[in-house]
Amino acid sequence: MAQWTFLTNHAHVLMCVAENPNVRLRDVALQVGITERAAQRIVTELEEAGYLEREREGRRNSYRLHTAMPLRHPLDINHRVGELLAIFARPSEGTVAASTDE
Length: 102
Hints:
With 102 residues, the chain is α+β, with helices and mostly antiparallel strands. It has a single domain, classed as Orthogonal Bundle (Arc Repressor Mutant, subunit A). The protein has helices at 9-19, 25-32, 36-48, 81-88, 95-98; strands spanning 52-57, 60-65. The chain has a two-stranded antiparallel ribbon.
């Protein structure tokens, strides 16, 4: 029997980034339970949709979340990503300050 969860892999990736803006995609993949390639695809989709920004710092990436962006499903459109993260993510020191409200 296939397992299912209430939150998508996209939400789980966002939570990983909120908890550690310098997280490696290899670690995101392990935490979410997906391949590194899937984690990379999700980060790219989130970046293209404006939910996060990726900045190269040497050999690593650093991420900045846009917490004022709305959730995407029509039933959730009146809620913001920041609301979801406030409930589920455990931000590291400074993560909240690094988040961008638009």
